[in-house]
Amino acid sequence: MSLAMAIAAGFCGSSQAVLEGNLRLSGSSNRLSMAKTDRIAFAKPGLRVRAQQQSSAETETSRRAMLGLFAAGMASGSFVQTVLAESISTLPTVPDKMRRKIIVAGMPGLLSEKSDSQGLIRAAAKLHIDGLVLLPVDVTKLPLINVEDHPNFPPEVQAFMDQMLLADAILFSAPGYNYSVTPITKNAIDWLSLRPETLAGKTAAIISTGWDFGGGRMQYHLRQIGVRPDLHFINTPEVFVSTAVDAQHPPKFDNNGDLIDETVRAQLQQLLVSLRDFTLPLKYCNNKDKNNGILT
Q1: Residue 294 placed within a domain
Q2: Domain span at residue 21?
Q3: What integer pLDDT is reported at residue 59 of this predicted model?
């Protein structure tokens, strides 16, 4: 995890350096440079990277750029040898505050407390996952969206939006209705989309229930709906929970809607771990420059 976060930090740094014009190709030598003295060379045929160390700010930018290029090389499958100049100390470390817990809003797609949808959110909230806390959100009080007659947000909607602003990510839990999302889920997204910052840039994961495909078709429709509000869904794992009950398939929920199937519980845990690992580097990239390099 620490290595992944450090590589993410370096990749963010190199991207910012390119955007700012500090890191660029020079001449016809296919060389990325940041000036003259005290160079770091990446020994790869046809490519050399140079960094100037004239101030602490430039040093930090250079180091972040080098680590970002190293990450890019790893991602492309190429082997990159790093030769550090004598004047270069250690690579930058990720701020400790980056390791604070990721807050996930658990959003059920049904109103009943005894529903499988609500039961999965309760089960998720009880899981112990390092670096993550899941907080259920209440969708039962949201009115049906009607902005034409009520241009101002009702108090229940405003409170819901304020709660969602605190979340870094969203776990959607809902059944498939006619191959699509439930009206509860769509209504919640439609309200939130009227205040773009409540959803834009957030990450999301889905767990669905259903008889045949475990609500799988709903998941793909939900991903499509999330494009306009700028949600970023994880791709794997995909968790579809079949609610069919017969001689070969015992019930996965009790009469109160609580999850009793340990296989589904393990899948839910892996889903949240993947959501955490997907959210952390994106949150770091989005927030560190706004807060002098410290994740809030």
Answers
A1: no
A2: 2-94
A3: 52
pLDDT in tens, 135-158: 999 999 999 998 877 678 999 999
Using CA atoms, how far residue 131 sits from 56, 78, 102, 270, 273, in Å, is 31, 32, 6, 14, 9
Please give the backbone phi and psi of residue 267, each rounded to the nearest 5 degrees, phi first: -65, -40
Q: In whole angstroms, what is the distance from residue 145 CA to residue 147 CA?
A: 6
With vertex at residue 131, the alpha carbon angle to CA 173 and CA 5, rounded to the nearest 5 degrees, is 110
| Residues 225-236: tens digit of each pLDDT | 999 999 999 999
Which one of 47, 63, 94 terminates a domain? 94
Q: How far apart are CA 100 and CA 189, in angstroms?
A: 27
Cα(268)–Cα(116) distance, integer angstroms: 13
In a domain, 296, yes or no: no
Give the CA radius of gyration of the chain: 23
Tell me the β-bridge partners of 248: none
For residues 205 and 183, state if they share a domain. Answer: yes
- Residues 160, 73 share a domain: no
The whole-angstrom separation of Cα 69 and Cα 79 is: 11
How remote is the C-alpha of 268 from its chain's centroid? 16
Kindly report the pTM of this predicted structure: 0.66
- Provide the domain count of the chain: 2
Strand partners, 185: none
Give the domain-ending residue among 94, 113, 141: 94
Same-domain pairing of 63 and 163:
no
Looking at the predicted structure, is the pLDDT value of residue 71 above 80?
no
**At residue 17, what is the residue type?**
A
203 to 91, 122, 168, 263: CA distances (angstroms): 29, 20, 7, 24
Which residue, 229, 227, 168, 222, is CA-closest to 194? 229
Residues 10 and 139 in one domain: no
